[in-house]
Design a protein that fits this description.
By secondary structure, the chain is an alpha/beta fold. About 30% of the residues lie in helices and about 25% in strands. It contains seven helices and nine strands.
Length: about 270
Amino acid sequence: MSDAVSVIRARLPNAAPKLGLVLGSGLGGLVDEIEDAVRIAYTDLPHFPHSTVSSHAADLVIGKLAGVEVAVLAGRVHAYETGEADAMAVPIATLKGLGVESLILTNAAGSLHEKMAPGSLMLINDHINFSGRNPLIGVEGDARFANMVDAYDPAMRARAKQLAEAEGIALHEGVYGWFLGPSFETPAEIRMARTMGMDAVGMSTVPETILARFHGLNVLAISSITNLGAGMTGEALSHHETKDVGATIVPNLTKLIRAVVADLAEH
């Protein structure tokens, strides 16, 4: 982590972002909203992972969003790419090393409720780790026993809901279930997930949340609903659908994130 921070400091000695963002599938366009952006490829940062997903960029972008200095991880690496849940350990630790205090996570997810249709946004209020993996396995010391009560900061969630209403953006709220992937869930697994209390499912975000809480960061997470779960429509699922529908959600997600960022700066 310190090596990556040193590289960034050499490029941007005065960088002092307090807010970090992680962008999910099809959401790379949000980077275009960053002003005075400086991009540093993951390949130029020591120990950073390299994404193999077609819809993911692989850059750290530092600049201003809504007048606030931010550090954006444009592209994440999933546990299914490496087999390791700690794939994003170095990037998240690097954000902490740069001075980031709060983290906004985004992802593409499948809805388990017909009323939360593709094209919707869902605020994550809790998660279920169904993967059987944890990014803190092997970490030494008592800090690895990270507290996950209110992992998704209640105050940030409350403000996000207020801001979404003010912007006229429909914002659902629910529990996100992390499945390891990379294959989509089966219809039987979706039925099980609904019974267990999940409202949306996906293949990311939970590891970053655990890592963020390990580092003491406040977390806000928003899912872009790109499809209904397997077996709910009779249609086959595909990553193309995830990318295509995800792109249509970007304007509302961008508007909401800009509002949240500006609000954090004021408070």
